[in-house]
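$ ./design --mode recover --in tokens.txt
reading tokens...
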């Protein structure tokens, strides 16, 4: 709506200016109302001034001044100013003046007169563009400041909430030890470590692989608290290679394990998850094999794909042309294989 209002205002200003000159000015250089069609030179002058104003205010200033290309801006202003005034003066001298008088002033007089008017239009255009640019910059600064304050508030909230939860978990941990429930205490401790890793460690672009592995172990141990002793469920994690010497992007392996638990564990049936992590020759081979229970939780056969599109997108950003991801279902087992080329 503001854009339409601005457009209407511009049209009104130029139209009113044109009518004022047409009705209240009797002579413009060699052009006189009493000797010819006076509206033609007035219209031509208005069109020329429109070109100067909007080319300067809406093209030259935004494209060169904001990018600090001052020399190019000055060059284009000079060339454009001289060129358009030569064009207007040539039309006045060759075609328009003969309709008004058989005698006319020399060409340089037309050029000087047109340049004088154009100079004031150019100054007005520059002033308008600079003020508009300043207003836009101030509005942008205000928006950025508001976004910064919002981000800082969100950050503070994200700091306060984890600390509160950590304190609560510490209280639960102390009470479970007091009442002699070591398994519950251990589960609470692992849960706190999971949260601490997700809140603090994932701020880094890369983490040492051993930290990601420990996160997987804590995740598995917390989940195993839900498994009864008589449930036929096995979760194995095997690690080989120097996992302390390489780094990977955080939270990259956990989706595979979450998917394996979601689609591969059914307390009423035999279930297993085998996780293998091998580091060799600057490569990480991460493989997860799990049983598939399509009837569990109303899962369909296609549901075991676990957001592969999102994972592929993330891998393409984090490891462009440095990863291989394969998934397939074979004889009732779902197999995921991820190969990363490490730094």
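writing sequence...
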């Amino acid at each position: 709506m503001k854009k339409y209002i601005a457009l209407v205002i511009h049209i009104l200003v130029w139209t009113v200016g044109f009518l004022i000159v047409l009705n209240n000015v009797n002579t413009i250089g060699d052009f006189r109302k009493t000797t010819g069609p006076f509206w033609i030179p007035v219209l031509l002058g208005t069109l020329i001034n429109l070109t100067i104003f909007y080319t300067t205010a809406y093209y030259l200033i935004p494209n060169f001044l904001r990018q600090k290309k001052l020399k190019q801006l000055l060059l284009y202003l000079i060339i454009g100013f001289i060129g358009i005034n030569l064009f207007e003066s040539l039309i006045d001298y060759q075609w328009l003046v003969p309709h008004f008088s058989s005698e006319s002033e020399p060409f340089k007089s037309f050029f000087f007169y047109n340049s004088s008017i154009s100079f004031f239009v150019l100054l007005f255009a520059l002033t308008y563009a600079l003020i508009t640019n300043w207003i836009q910059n101030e509005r942008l600064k205000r928006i950025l400041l508001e976004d910064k304050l919002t981000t800082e508030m969100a950050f503070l909230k994200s700091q306060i909430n984890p600390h509160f939860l950590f304190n609560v978990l510490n209280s639960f941990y102390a009470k479970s030890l007091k009442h002699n429930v070591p398994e519950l205490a251990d589960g609470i401790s692992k849960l706190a470590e999971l949260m601490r890793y997700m809140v603090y460690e994932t701020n880094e672009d890369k983490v040492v692989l051993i930290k990601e592995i420990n996160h997987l172990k804590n995740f598995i141990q917390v989940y195993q608290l839900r498994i009864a002793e008589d449930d036929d469920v096995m979760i194995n994690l095997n690690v080989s290679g120097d996992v302390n010497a390489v780094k990977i992007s955080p939270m990259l392996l956990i989706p595979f394990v979450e998917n394996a638990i979601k689609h591969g564990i059914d307390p009423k049936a035999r279930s297993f998850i085998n996780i293998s992590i091998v580091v060799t020759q600057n490569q990480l081979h991460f493989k997860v094999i799990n049983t598939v229970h399509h009837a569990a939780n109303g899962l369909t056969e296609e549901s075991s794909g676990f957001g592969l599109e999102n994972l592929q997108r993330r891998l393409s950003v984090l490891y462009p042309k440095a990863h291989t991801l394969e998934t397939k279902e074979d004889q009732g087992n779902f197999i995921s294989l991820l190969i990363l080329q490490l730094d």
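exit 0
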